[in-house]
Amino acid sequence: MDVSKPQLLLKRVVNIKAIVTPLWKEEVQQQLQAQINQIDQQLQQLDIQGQRAIAEVQKQNLQPPGPQTLQQIESIQYQVNQKKSELLEQKNQSLQNLQQVQLLELDQEVNQFQMEGFFRVEPGDNLISKMQVEVVLRDGVVEEIRGDV
Questions:
Q1: Does residue 97 share a domain with residue 31?
Q2: CA dihedral in degrees (53, 57, 63, 68; nearest 10)?
Q3: Coiled coil located at which positions (predicted)?
Q4: Cis preceding-peptide flag for 64 (omega within 30 of 0)
Q5: Same domain as 132, residue 101
Q6: Do 58 and 36 fall into the same domain?
Q7: Count of domains observed in the chain
Q8: Is pLDDT at 121 greater than 60 in this prediction?
Q9: Spatial separation of the C-alpha atoms in residues 77 and 70, rounded to whole Å
Q10: What's the CA gap between 61 and 69, in Å, rounded?
């Protein structure tokens, strides 16, 4: 008769770290620059869309514009400014991240992202140590797995 220990399959968060290399820095800087360029394009499109919407409202209404037309125009400008503010905040964050990446030293470890993974636990296991697992990558290749797998 097989008397095996009871086991349980649990889910944990695994930290994925990267070792800073010239290739890693270059790739991350390119990704951040692409994000910044995309935000710049969105800002330009937003300006154009806002101008078109205001022109359309003005075209459909009488001259001089009445209070309802002015209110519509103000509403459009407010919405455009709100979205512009969000995009500028995103751009500022990306610029800060770009600056931080440029200052990183080679062979330094940085947190890159987190993933979820499953693991088995059985009586006698240290749950805390089983929860603390991280994977270290060098240029996308697993260099080390740390913790109680």
A1: yes
A2: -120
A3: 73-101
A4: yes
A5: no
A6: yes
A7: 2
A8: yes
A9: 10
A10: 7
